[in-house]
Amino acid sequence: MINPPVDRVRGAPFITDLSAYTSARLRADLQSGITVAIFAIPQVMAYALLMGVPPIHGLYAAMVTSIIAALWGSSAFVNTGPTNSASLLTAAALIPLAGNGHYLEAIFVFTILVGIFRCLLGLSRMGLLVNYVPESAFLGFTVGVGLMIALGPLHHLLGVEKSTHAYFPYRVYEVLGHVKEINFSSLSIGLGTLVFMLGCDRWSRILPTALIAISISTLAVHALPLQIPVVESIPRGLPRFHTPEVDWSLIPSLVIPAFAVAAIGLVEAVSIGQILAVKHKRHMNFNQEFFGQGISHIVGAFFQGIPGSGSFSRSTLIERAGGETRFANVYYGFFTAIALLLIPAILEKIPIAALAGLLLYIGIQLVDLRRLRRLWKTSKHDAVILVVTFLSTVFVTIEFGLLIGIIIAAGIVLNRAGELRMFELIPSPSGRFDEKPYDPGSEHEPGDLVALTVYGELFYGVSHQLLEQLNEIAQTQQPKFMVLRIRRAYSIDYSCWNAIFDFAEAFDSQGGKLILAGIRSDISDLIAQARMQEVLPSEQVYPQGSALLQSFKQALDYATQQVKDSDRLQGCWQDYIENPVLLTEQQIEDINQFLKGDSIPGTPKE
């Protein structure tokens, strides 16, 4: 995520697009909208099936939420509606209610809660949170969701009784226990749909392969004497306004799962929206997108819609089909409504097993082997995050799968950040300073002058290491002057400044002098406030300058002038005093390139 989302939520962002709308954009958006509607109708019906509700509610959600989210969101391409993860999360949250008469009403209430959370996140400008979801955790979650989507409708694929157990692995185990009761007609239709989709995968971007597969399966079921379930009766007409019946006793148990659906859906929407925005050199307001996603779900629930989010597949297709503005998704909603008005009798004939085969295909497609291999070879830490997130999603709880991955990632980052990176700077005849790390057991030559540099974040997690390392250097190398360069420390918190001050006092009492180089100009005020001028007077504090190594060179000049016995210096420092290090133009250029990030050597050089 490269866009810091600080934008405010606007009331009617679509008005700006209307003012610049042209006939060419209208044609492009109409073409894109009808194309995606043809592709998506079987998909949203399958997602409703995955959630355990009649497929018609997937169509209702596709109509209403896509239109409202497009008008009040930020992205020109993000298509909002039923998705795989939202369906799974909702089904997992409400599985205790599955089978009773209040299940559908509970889903509508759940949808409202999801919308409220998304609106609140947008209005409170919390889009920044998306930046803290590591790619490895999201990939592990996606793989887990893919497996659950593939196996979730297994009972429909096999034509056996559904398990109502809340624990997903046990549900699969229970369904497989009915293997002797398999309906081979259902299995043939489902696997046939899968094989067709896989075989036509290379053409899926230009042909409505899902629609073709479902159509062939529907024709096969009604042309052959096959006894398998089909989609329930489709209500005629558009969705009617409906106020959900709220069972207030259920609300506390729905809050955390609703927040999980809201948060994960926003990660999905922003991820695909940001990719497409960068591709087309457009700006994306994360907070506006959050608000649009939220208000669309609140409105959608009152028209019998189910939870969803931004769809990767449909959003990408909107863009590839030539969509220019947010109105492409508005037209998608209208065309879905037209299809419901014109062909409900055809939709009623779709075999459930074919939709299960479509879900199996979607689940398989979510497992991106290329990205998995790349991640596995790139970082073992990220591989651990991926595996833990995947296992948590499938074997613990899908609601907290991604959260557990984020927590593990944060722990790994804190552990890595908690490693103090300190080096001794040693002048070399080549005209540069070599760096020798302070690793456990490493040997460093004693002498009256020691120059040090630190890298990274100096925060409370390394404060004890910093104080111990400085004390160890003072004891083992016994310097009279210690130059500490902190220009490459990104930030220094109170704990680390306190460690530096404590060491400076102890070192001063032993007759030594700590010299600071490369500090911010305002640190002088900090030293004064801490009443440390006696042990860190102005001649021992060198603020960072505009020239490369300027303050470090000044600190070294002061230290070498104070040395009274050159025999107590390391040989390299004796040579330095006689012939101060002068960097060549090429060396200065190399350092500048490194500081800009153009090259990252194994050990930083200055």
Topology:
Layout: H1 14-19, H2 23-51, H3 56-72, E1 79-81, H4 84-94, H5 103-123, H6 135-151, H7 154-158, H8 168-176, H9 184-199, H10 209-223, H11 251-279, H12 286-301, E2 309-311, H13 312-320, H14 327-342, H15 344-347, H16 352-365, H17 369-378, H18 380-396, H19 398-417, E3 421-427, E4 433-437, E5 449-458, H20 460-476, E6 481-485, E7 489-492, H21 494-509, E8 513-519, H22 523-529, E9 541-543, H23 550-562, H24 571-578, H25 585-596
Parallel strand pairs: 5-6, 5-7, 6-8, 8-9
Antiparallel strand pairs: 1-2, 3-4, 3-5
Summarize, please:
Helix content is 58%, strand content 8%. With 606 residues, it is of the alpha/beta class.
List keywords for this structure.
606 residues; alpha/beta; 2 domains; 7-stranded mixed β-sheet; 58% helix; disordered C terminus
What does this structure look like?
The chain is an alpha/beta fold. The chain has two domains: 25-367, no CATH class; 419-596, Transcription Regulator spoIIAA (2-Layer Sandwich), CATH 3.30.750. Helix content is 58%, strand content 8%. The chain contains 25 helices and nine strands. It has helices at 14-19, 23-51, 56-72, 84-94, 103-123, 135-151, 154-158, 168-176, 184-199, 209-223, 251-279, 286-301, 312-320, 327-342, 344-347, 352-365, 369-378, 380-396, 398-417, 460-476, 494-509, 523-529, 550-562, 571-578, 585-596; strands at residues 79-81, 309-311, 421-427, 433-437, 449-458, 481-485, 489-492, 513-519, 541-543. The strands form two sheets. Strands 3, 4, 5, 6, 7, 8 and 9 form a seven-stranded mixed sheet that branches. Strands 1-2 form a two-stranded antiparallel sheet. Helix 5 packs antiparallel against helix 12. The chain is elongated and about 105 Å long. The model is unreliable at 1-5 and 597-606 (pLDDT under 50).
